[in-house]
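Hi there,

I know you've been waiting on this one. I reran it after we fixed the sequence typo, so this is the corrected version. Both the input and the resulting structure follow.
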Amino acid sequence: MPACYGPPAETIADLREALVRLHGLLLRQGMHALANRLLQDEQRLGRGDFSAIESIVAEATGGMGSLNDLAVFRERIDELRTLAQTARSAPWSSRT
């Protein structure tokens, strides 16, 4: 992986894994639009586009139409929110 500036690689890996897990759960419940938004954020993170972190935080804490509206998968949503907020507040550094 080329050198980049961003949150710790482990934090991003954990966040991506959480997105993939929640994406699958949402698909199985027929929530395709929401699932696809999460998949797009996961793909953006995979390309090193860390602006996706803000999108994930908004999705996990936002208003109408966001993950925050769902009563199902609350534990997974809370995990995603925590990971995204951790990534957002983590000290960024160059890494390879």
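Quick highlight: The two ends are 6 Å apart (CA to CA).

Best,
R. S.
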